[in-house]
Amino acid sequence: MSLETTFERRSLPLEHAFTIARGTQTTAENVVVRITDEDGTVGVGGAAPSTHYGETADTVEAVLPDLLSVVEAVGDPHALARIERRMRETVNRNPAARCAVSIALHDLAAKQADLPLYRYWGLDAAEAVPTSFTIGIDDLPVVREKTEAAVDAGYDVLKVKVGTDRDEEILEAVRDAAPDATVRVDANEAWSPREAVRKIDALAEYDLEFVEQPVPAENPEGMRFVRERAALPIAADESCITLADVPRVVGQADVVNVKLMKCGGLREAKRMVHAARAHGLEVMLGCMIESNASIAAAAHLAPLLDYADLDGSLLLAEDPYDGVPMPAGAIDLARVERAGTAARR
Ligand SMILES: [Mg+2]
User: Fold this and answer.
1) How many angstroms does the Cα of residue 173 sit away from the middle of ligand 1?
2) How far is the CA of 188 from the centre of ligand 1 (A)?
3) Is the pLDDT of residue 314 over 80?
4) In the chain, N or C terminus with fewer CB closer than 10 Å?
5) Is the dihedral of CA 285, 187, 136, 98 positive or negative?
6) pLDDT per residue as tens digits for the range 4-30
7) Cα 74 to middle of ligand 1, angstroms
8) pTM of the model
9) What is the domain class of 119-335 according to CATH?
10) Cα(209) to centroid of ligand 1, in Å?
11) Where in the chain is the domain with CATH 3.20.20.120?
12) Which residues, at least 6 apart from 181, have a Cβ–Cβ distance to it below 8 Å?
């Protein structure tokens, strides 16, 4: 068996500038890996590097040759455990780069088995949870307009970015436009612990599902302080990066937000899901702003989740890749007829 590998950078403009408590983004720099077998079947996988976790498209491109030489040396896309272990021995950090390879291998392995990825894993399409649609930080009329557009498009679950000096006004605008939606909020580490308890008490009036990452990840005792006192359940995102973090956030959060680009691949993400359940935590799968070269793979994990936040592709002006259909946020795996992840140019 032999495998050929290539990669290319994709600069993807967003539909609207996207603002969270940390800053604003107008383009997503993704790097897409292709792994081709002897029959010409191609596995596709994307990296969506995040500077918050120390990666850029440049660092991804810098380490991919070493990672892909492991893939070529092993030569078998079904040898997922061996390739993962050897990639970690080669490049221990750079999770988004390792993730692109992980996704491309899973895509190729499932294509060789002639099964959609969720069926290759033995999962049930009917158990998939819907994805939320994210409303970024913006002026109040824009927040209202974007929320109305999301409701018109049929989204039942909204994730609203907070961490501003006008969070209550933002939630009021959202609730006006979407009185029946399930609404969760994400503060992206914006608050101090005492401020978070106060803010969450006030925001709870708007009937919220949970609050993501109220305080900085560097302050685990602050997370615990908030979780013990806050009026709403707490989700850990920046505080929960890899498998080893799952037991650490017990007592600090009720939900963990697993992301492929933080943990380094689909196998690590599945381990995190099961470890979280064993520790009595609920599980959300989130994303960066990503094309379907990676979101399509994440969508195949939807049957294992309590919550999904997989709207990364929906925030792009245009996605060069097809993926799993998500009409009005319903992750419709049953409609995936192609083998693999369903990412296709
Ligand atoms: Mg988050």
Assistant:
1) 21
2) 6
3) yes
4) N
5) negative
6) 999 999 999 999 999 998 899 999 999
7) 36
8) 0.97
9) alpha beta
10) 14
11) 119-335
12) 150, 151, 155, 156, 157, 158, 174
